[in-house]
Design a protein that fits this description.
About 35% of the residues lie in helices and about 30% in strands. It has helices spanning about 55-65, 85-100, 125-135, 140-150, 205-215, 250-275, 290-305, 305-315, 320-325, 360-370, 395-405, and strands at about 1-5, 15-20, 30-45, 70-80, 110-115, 160-165, 170-180, 190-195, 230-235, 280-290, 340-345, 345-355, 355, 375-380, 385-390. The strands form two sheets. Strands 1, 2, 3, 4, 5, 6, 7, 8 and 9 form a nine-stranded mixed β-sheet that branches. A six-stranded mixed β-sheet has the order 13-12-11-14-10-15.
């Protein structure tokens, strides 16, 4: 596998566009479209929140059908959640606009929104945005990058990646973009993300791969404990690489799944590091747990704890907070088996060993915890399973951002 420049336009046959529609933000692009003239197999995962945005319900219906997918239209600023029948009508009118401009079936168009909950979309601006983007669609790296910037809300950086890999003797490409900074907690995939690939693969196998990969990538993020109403992850595969169709779980399927995991994990870590107000990426890796689910539960509990996040922000080696979070996580373990370490580019330090604290140099610990990426490593010594959760520190700026998000 090779990392290449680009994002959603890296794979053959995909185009993207963005536009300043004036939905909420001024003087910035706030709508994006990703399009393939060739019909695509699609797969997706969506929020577990019972309160699902209109666009999420629209996309679930598309994903569960046998329809091919041609495009996705995304707006930032307004979430189109808790908007009743008017919200569903906005989805339909958006898809109809794509149908009119690009001559693709309306039921092949996904829609996604992010922003303020409870506000209606200005549908005239949305339709006008679709019309403008249809004329701007391009397959350059810049077109894809601009699309990744247009879907941002409180994100401070855009998030995109592309890779090539081999399926049999054919080189195929997978690219993607995501957004997410706040209202992020692991119960689906906790954000908006759109992946494009020119690989030929059946819908069934692509869905199975995506559903499996999301467990240890996007589902392992937590920023603030809030599961969004709009979480959407979709992948489009147009088959233009002309590889033999992946229709069984063979070596080609594993190559695809490995690349999918890499792309999703990359985007997940970028989102966690860019959590609202964050100053550093905070990871927790649990190894040698009894079960995979225990490892996931324990690592997520560590990064989800506000006290743990505050300690990371303050570079305070208060390891008791991490052990406390593990203790109430719901996973059963014997604390007498546990070892705990702090790790970053500045070094690695053990602070807890088999139920007993270890004397350590506070200044050295502060140095380790002051790096832009910090890991709490926990060895359970009870099995062979492991998992890593991704989060960020809790800063004063997080409160500032969310105190006036709507007003």
């Amino acid at each position: 596998m090779e990392i290449i420049k680009g994002g959603v336009t890296a794979a053959k046959g995909f185009k993207a566009a963005s536009v300043a529609a004036g939905i909420k933000y001024e003087n910035r692009e706030d709508m994006a479209m990703v399009y393939s003239k060739e019909p695509c197999e699609c797969a997706g995962t969506f929020t577990s929140n019972v309160v699902k945005a209109a666009c999420v319900q629209w996309d679930i219906k598309l994903n569960e059908s046998n329809e091919k997918m041609h495009a996705v239209v995304v707006n930032s600023g307004i979430a189109n959640a808790c908007t009743g029948e008017e919200g569903f009508e906005a989805c339909r009118k958006t898809a109809d606009a794509v149908n009119k401009c690009l001559d693709v079936p309306a039921n092949s168009v996904a829609v996604a929104s992010t922003g303020v909950i409870g506000a209606q979309l200005p549908i005239d601006k949305i339709v006008s945005g679709v019309e403008k983007m249809a004329d701007k669609l391009g397959d350059s790296i810049e077109d894809g990058t601009n699309a990744s910037k247009a879907i941002m809300t409180t994100d401070t950086v855009n998030k995109e990646i592309a890779v090539t890999f081999e399926v049999g003797e054919t080189t195929v490409t997978l690219g993607g973009m995501s957004k997410g900074s706040g209202m992020i907690h692991p119960n689906m995939c906790t954000m908006l993300a759109f992946l494009t690939t020119d690989v030929a693969i059946t819908k069934k196998l692509m869905q199975e791969a995506l559903s499996e990969v999301v467990k240890d990538t996007f589902n392992m993020i937590t920023v603030d404990g809030d599961t969004s109403t709009n979480d959407t992850l979709m992948i489009m595969a147009n088959g233009l690489a002309n590889n033999p169709v992946i229709a069984e779980k063979n070596a080609d399927y594993e190559s695809f799944k490995d690349a999918l995991f890499y792309v999703c994990r990359y985007l997940a870590r970028k989102m966690a590091a860019d959590g609202e107000g964050a100053s550093k990426l905070f990871e927790a890796k649990v190894v040698n747990a009894k079960t995979k689910e225990d490892a996931r539960t324990l690592s997520r509990a560590i990064v989800a704890s506000n006290l743990s996040k505050a300690a990371i922000y303050g570079c305070d080696a208060n390891f008791g907070r991490f052990l406390c979070a593990m203790g109430y996580s719901g996973a059963e373990f014997d604390q007498k088996n546990v070892e705990l370490f702090f790790e970053s580019e500045a070094g690695k330090m053990q602070v807890f060993s088999y139920g007993t604290p270890i004397e350590f140099d506070e200044d050295e610990a502060t140095k380790i915890l002051s790096c832009p990426e910090v890991m709490v490593l926990v060895d359970m010594h009870e099995g062979s399973e492991e998992a890593t959760a991704f989060g960020c520190d809790l800063t004063h700026e997080y409160v500032n951002i969310n105190a006036d998000y709507r007003s």
